[in-house]
Amino acid sequence: MIDNEGIRAEDTRSCLLCGNEGILLYHGLRDRLFCAPGSWSLLQCPACKLAWLNPRPIPEDIGKLYFQYFTHDLPRDPKGAFAYLRKSIKASILQSSFGYQIHGSNRILGSVLSKIAPLNDIAGGDVRYLKASEKGRLLDVGCGNGAFLSNMKQLGWSVEGIEPDIEALMVARKNLRLNLFQGYLEEAKYPDKYFDAITMNHVIEHVADPINYLKECLRVLKPGGKLVVITPNINSLGRNILNDAWLAWDPPRHLFLFSIQSLRTSAELAGLTIKELRTTAKGARWIWVSSSLIKRNGILKGISPEVPETSLRLQGLVFQLAECMHQNDSGEELVLIATRDE
After folding, report:
1. I need a surface site. Which of 94, 173, 214, 220 has the fewest CB within 10 A?
2. 121 close to 333: Cβ distance less than 8 angstroms
3. Is the pLDDT reported for residue 179 higher than 70?
4. Alpha-carbon torsion 165, 167, 172, 178, what sign?
């Protein structure tokens, strides 16, 4: 056992997936966002390309890393003409591509814009790529402040959520009137084959045993149901340009980071049937702006500045366009869509 500035942690040099000893990527990393204690390293398996935090906080001390976190507040609702236009475009695409009837949407506009793949991907991310025709019982694992579940409830889903962070959960209960479970997935003890859809948006990188988490998702998913996992892509263009300043390393909260190869292996070990596994550039602009500020200043309290400088925002837009054009497997996030066969 290691005492890392008050965080109890364990030395973890072997790969969770294949047992190989990891190669050191970075050493002496500190929390750049919320000033959690500790000095951390990142290792990567030379075979399956899984990356992980070393030393790894023990489960009993992980909560100490979340005393401050962005899910402790509801996201701000953007104002102004540009924000209204962006909202209308998304609503129109969601109606055309995903079948949701949203006030203020335009079917003709949506039909045209949905043919632009990056726009379709950005809008689809708002509903975690779930279609209106699939509506039923939805579980959001790691639901944070509940903003996503509140939106999906308005779109006709029957929603449930689970979140270990009590501060985030209090925001969801107080402001959105959502009834959510406080704790971890295996503690909720949901019945077998219970949910039509399960979403895990930037969650799997936070858990100490991602394989067992995926197995538990499989257990509570109905046959033919859909599991959607979104997580940072360790082979992204941003990571390769920005190196240790890449926002998505997020030490010490991100315990594991995946490539397409390692996420596929994880899903297969859990017994899931993979329907789709790809990358997306939908968050590339924000990643570029935030990571660039980390690179320049060494710290970025609270994820991102309220109003980044114009030149940096333009750089982020250019970066996102470049990543969309040459995405292949280098988008900033991985999107896994899987199902249960029987």
Report:
1. 173
2. no
3. yes
4. positive
